[in-house]
Amino acid sequence: MSVPLPQIQPTHAPPPSLYGLSRDTLAARLAERGVPGYRADQIFQWVYQKHHRSAAAMMNLPASLRTGLDELCSLALPVVATRLGTPEGDTQKFVLALADGARVECVSMRTERRLTFCVSSQVGCALRCSFCATGLMGLKRNLRAEEIVAQVVTMGDFHRWQDDRFNIVFMGMGEPLANYKPVVEAIRILHEPRGLNIGARRITVSTSGIVPGIRRLASEHLQLGLALSLHATTDALRNELVPLNQRWPLAELLPAVREYGRTVGRRVTLEYTLIAGVNDSPDDATGLAAIARDLPSKINIIPYNPVPGLPYKRPSAATIDAFVERLYPIAPSVTVRNTLGGEIWAACGQLGGLTPEG
Prior knowledge:
Helix 5 (145-158) packs across helix 6 (180-191). By secondary structure, this protein is of the alpha/beta class. The longest helix has 15 residues, at 250-264. The chain has helices at residues 23-31, 38-49, 63-72, 133-137, 145-158, 180-191, 211-218, 235-241, 250-264, 282-293, 317-327; strands at residues 79-85, 91-97, 103-110, 115-118, 122-124, 139-142, 167-170, 203-207, 225-229, 268-274, 297-303, 334-336. The chain has two domains: 18-72, DNA polymerase, domain 1; 79-344, Aldolase class I (TIM Barrel), CATH 3.20.20.70. It has eleven helices and twelve strands.
């Protein structure tokens, strides 16, 4: 029997976004209106598994709930203000217009092996890493959980959910551990078995080195991947490239990373952006290998992606090869990131309002 929803008094506050509600929170909101909790499972299935964005098609819900769902929560997604794709179609950059007018960028990347969604955690970034476009913006604001989840849903809709084994990397705009609570809330929503059911091992959180956040993340009992934006093997150089190092130098940072890897049972990825004449010497490679051997880790070399207005340059192919060849026999595991999206300013370190026209 259909149970009518009680009359809701109008308020000035809009309903919360569904994409920021856990299954239990949605069930509680329904219970306040006399609707049984299992309806939350049905709504999650329609939205996250059948990918419907309107309650009208949710035919196993009572009519009163279908017509009244918008009073409980919003299914609206941010407007895609701009979408830029590479000529090959392997990379797409989405510029999303948020409700307050802020713009945030996220990127989908397809290779032969997998589809990866690179999501942002903040509008801009306060850390001002010297080689990164996002740092030039400064921090505008943190993203809410629903704004993070909505990036994944938007990109999934674009790709028609053709690959349900996609990976998620928090490597877009912002420092995820500086926006800790919304990021973890979003991860738990994405991880919900009755929703998208994305395994924790397919989600990686990248950090520039917020030590308390690394330790806190280890206590969440989620097998999340952790990527450390290392980029230098000495405090002197890292202070220049990643100013956050002045707060948590390597002597404090690396033990926290080691503890994370051992607690979670996963190797940590050491991200190392290779910059011509800055951190690409044989001594740099030797130091990087020594750090990697002391951790449960693997190394990901990222050839620098140029940013207008910054003085850094990408090393030559020969320099990259020489650096990697020096690492191979003395480091536990080494990969070189394949640059995707550079022509649309969507590659690592290039998010921040740049367009192909400049």
